[in-house]
Every structure is written in C-alpha cells, then in structure tokens.
Amino acid sequence: MSFTNTTSFTPRDNHVLHVLGVERISKESQDELSLDDQEALLKQYIKQNYDGPIDFISIKSQGSGEYLDRSELFEIESLIESRNLDVVICEDLGRICRRRRAYDLCELCEDYGTRLIALNDKVDTSQDGWQDSAFLSTWHHERSNRDTSDRIRRSLRNRFINGGIIQTLVFGYIKPDGTKTDQDVYKNPEAEAIYEHWFTMLENGASYSDVADWLNREKIPLGPGSRSDKWSCKMVRRVTYNPILKGERVRNKKKSKRVNRTGRRKSENSPPEEILRRNCPHLAFIAPDRYDRLIMLLDTRNKKYCRKGKNGKDTRKNVSKKRTRFPGQMVECGICGHKYVFGGHGQKDHLMCDGARGHTCWNGVTIDGPLATEKILSAILTEIEQLPDFDQKFLANVQNEARRLDQDLVKKQSQLESEIQRQEQVIENLLNYIRSGNSSERVSQDLSRVETELKENQLELSSIKDKPRSTVEIPDIFELKELARTNLLHLDQESWEFRILMKRLIPKIVVFPYQLCDGGKIVLRAQFRLFIAGLLENSSTRDTLQKPLERVLTVDLFDSPQRNAYREVVVEMRQANAGDNNQTVKEIAESLGITDTAVQYAMALQRQMDSLGITDPYIPITEPPGTGKLIRHKHPRYQFTPLPHAGEI
C-alpha cells in the first residue's frame, strides 16, 4: 500500500468515525470474494490510521463502472449529502464510477465536509492538490478503456478478414468441433432442397408466415442457436435476409454507442465503410444474383407496411416502444390477458390484441384509438363532476384509511427489518463456507441472489422510513374538479404527459367482446379502476385517498348502431301514445328524422330484449364466434394460450 495518510481523521461527533467503503466488481465471472478482499484492504487502512471507535459500512456492487444510473451510486451520493459520513474510501475512483462523474463525486464530498480517499489513485480530498490526482486518474481510466476497446476491435476485425470469428450459424450449416475458420464450415446437403423450395415460395408471392407454416409441417429443425422449437414469421424473415445464404459473411452491421448521460450503450447501424464482408462461395445455397433479386422484390412488396414518417424521417426512431401515446401499452385483452398494440389490421390508429396477432387468442376485434380516448376521457370527467361534497362520514373514512396505512407501514417495516437481519446472517454463513476453502456454483448463485434481495429490501425499508405518517391534507372537492378539467382538457391527447397522467388515473384497461342480442358486429367494452386521487401531487394524500376515491367504470369503445341509439326514445314514444292516439311508425320516423326501417329495427331489438328478459342489449361473447370475419381460431397455427391474469381489472 504505497499511499500513506498524512492527515489525521477527525470524527464529526468527536466520538465515532463514520466510514463508507465502496467495493465493486464488473462482471459475474469475477470472483465475488474480491469484494471481501477490497473491504478488508479498506478496513486495514482505516485501522492503521485511526485508533478510536469506527462505524464502517460497505456498499458492494456488481456492474460496470461506466453505468452512471446504478442505484448504488445514487445511494452513495445520498449518504454523502446526509452529512453523517466522515470518510468515503475506495481502492480507486473507478470502483465508485468512471469518467467525469468520479471527479464530480470528489467535489461533492468536499462540499459536504466528507473526506474521500482513493488508495491506488493517491487521492485524498483533505490534502491540497487532490484535484490534480483525481483529474489524472479519471482521464487515465477513460483512456485505458478506450485503448482496450480499440485493441479488441482491431483484433476481431483482422480475425474476421482472415476467416475467423465463426459464431452461431443458421439452419443448414455444419460447424465441426474445433473449427477455426469458415473454410472448415460446410453445408448440410439435406438443406439444399429446403432452401430451394423456401425461396421459390417467396418468389411466388408467399408470406413469411406461409413459409413458417410449411417448415413446421415438414418438421424442419431450427438452427443450433435457436431458443424456440418452432419456425415463426420473424425467424423466417431473419434467415431470409442473412447474406450467408448467397455465400457472403457480414460483420459490424451494428455498433454500440455510449449514452453519456447514463453510461450505458445502445446499438445503432454502422456506417458503410465500417461494415466487413467476406466472400465464401462454398457456403452459398442460393445464387447471388437470384438472392439479390428476391431481397429487392421483398423490400418492394413490404414497403407499404413501413412507417411513412414525416419529411422523410421516422418519428419513432430512437424512441422506446413503451413511450407511446394513450391508450398504448395500457389495454389488455379480457380473453387472453395479452396487451393491445397499435397497428390493428393495418390501421396505425387502431389497436389489436397481441395474442390474436400471434394466433394464441381468438379475439381479433380492434380498438379505434382516438375514439376510445374520447370516450374514456368523457367517462372520467363525468364521474369526477358527479363527485359529492366531502361530508363528515367521508372524512372519517379517510382518517381511518390513513391510520390503516400507518399500521400497514409499521407492520411492513418490522417484517423488512426481520428479513434483512435474516438475509445478512445467510450471507455471512455463505461467505464463511466459501472462506473455508469450499467452492460450489450453487452457493455462488445463492449468494448473488440473497445479496440482490437484501439490497431490494434495504431500499424498500428506506422508502418506508421516509414516508410521513398521518399527515393528510384533503383538498376541496371543487379544487379537485378544477384540477381534473385543467389537466385532462388542456393537455394534448397525443402527448407523453397526457399518457403519464392517464396512467396514474387508470393503471390498466381491460376490454371484453360484446354483441347486440339480435346479432351484428362484435364490439369491445372497457372496464377499469379509476383512481381519482391520481390527480394529486402529494404522495401521502394520494395514497390515503386512493381507496375512498376509487371507482370501477365500464365504457363502450364504439358508437352504438342506429337501432340501439334510437331504441329507448322509440319505445318511449310508442308507450306515450298508446291507445287511440298511437303514433304510426312513419310518424315516429319523421319526428326523429330517421327512416321507417330504422324505427322497425329499433322496435325489433326491444322485442328481442323483452323475450330474453334483459335490460342491456349487449351480451358478452365468451366463445369464438362460429361465423363472420373473426375466425382466427380456425387457423392451423391457432392455439389458445391465455395468461393467468386474463380478465382481471
């Protein structure tokens, strides 16, 4: 240990030295005992330089120091800002994090009167000139990482050019054990006829799904790296577009780029000059000219299904799939439990059950997104406007709910504290087992699992302790209604902010298929729990009012057909003029501005309802319809596989 301490430690409280040790390893393949070795080194240094009582806590983590959004890093900053720490110590700054963020953390320690020591980097914020050492250390770590990355990249590119880097191959290729170059790889003769028929089908207009069905019927095996047991549409497309089928290996089509804000990396297309190609004629199943013609044909055929974008730019590029407009990612199918996704039946504003799209559900009814938004929003505003004033009974219920939540928090806190104590003992026992010279993969897995669970419980316990108790500020009912009007009516319904607000009000929307009792089009009804308290910003008030202000709503996501829309008024007019003054069908039609036939259909629908003894003209559809367009259940690929929570709201 070449770095020596020249400044004595001085506890804040003049009694106990509060020390935070930071230990980290990067990969799962690294020995977890390295964390204990780091901790032992840090404790030894503190004990050698301070004779008084020491309160030493550790934050151990496993993950890349490049990642700046790790929970451990936020926890370290929180402890520093609490002003309870005297010293933060680590083996080197890279154990905390890398890049400029490490230097910023040194400055944070200085601002809050906490001393930071990085042994190998010779950084001690209590000494003059520590900024030079910290700056040089962060620069050295960044340069070292970049040099290592460039060296690995150069080596892999050179090996590929010389025929190396033989990774997982698609169906039809055999890679013998010990293969070093692509010259050792050869084609499976039985795959020749399969690929010939495959490409002929596509040339004749077959879809990828048609090819997948044929491959599954013929029981054609998948490639050695496949995790599925059946061919799918996506898999057929992926293999079709693999140029190795024409005898060309390609590498570096994608490259990773660091997102500086988080330190994590995202994949993006490489520029053309960085893409490597290697000609391997002995691996070609399809003649290159024929292959290129087919790929051009497929691109032209499927171009109409691509997003058009605006001004030639894809508006969804680099946008997470979860960052979608309302009601995307919020609607579930009441039949199978799968989510509804945009693009139903080729309409970009319509949503369709993802299970039906994959032939695992028969409910192929789509939702008109803008219409559904309009009807759900109208139902929410109507429900909120009908809220009565908060009377004494309601206020008493709220106070009871607040006390119940407090009791639940106390109970949960006690359970977490007991569980944390048990987990710490389990970790200590596992570490003693490993220190005694025993080695077991299962023990290492258990240790990693328990440490992860311990960290989650500690974070949850910290969150519970930070929650205020029995402090509920109940807003005025008129204030709540005005808040709803302001937020729901003034936000753009296509915006991300509108979706976030709706997510707080309606965590989940479940849709069920219905049909008029006299037949006709199958439509969807939505059921959801409305949490009106989601309008409030104060978390304590929001949690307390969540149950008292919870409502369950049912909303029709469709426009009612004419015979049902006029049914009630037609019946009222007939009953009001019963006897000698009974209006004729023609007179009713003229007064309502509809046709005679429409009046007759409305009356027939009411007679059908009376014969069935029902007051709601719509009846639920619980089985696949025998006729009509919704015949997905008759497709050879159909296999009904509902999720366990299907139908729950």
UniProtKB/TrEMBL annotation:
Biased composition, class Basic residues, residue ranges: 251-264
Molecular function GO terms recorded: DNA binding; DNA strand exchange activity
Domain Recombinase: 170-304
Keywords: Coiled coil, DNA recombination, DNA-binding
Family matches, as PROSITE patterns: RECOMBINASE_DNA_BIND
Ranges in a coiled coil: 395-467
Keyword Transferase found: no
Keyword Transmembrane helix appears in the UniProt entry: no
Domain of life: Bacteria
Region Disordered, annotated ranges: 250-274
InterPro entries: DNA_bind_recomb_sf, DNA_bind_recombinase_dom, Resolv_N, Resolvase-like_N_sf, SSR_resolvase
Full protein name: Recombinase
Organism name: Gimesia chilikensis
Lineage, highest ranks first: Bacteria, Pseudomonadati, Planctomycetota, Planctomycetia, Planctomycetales
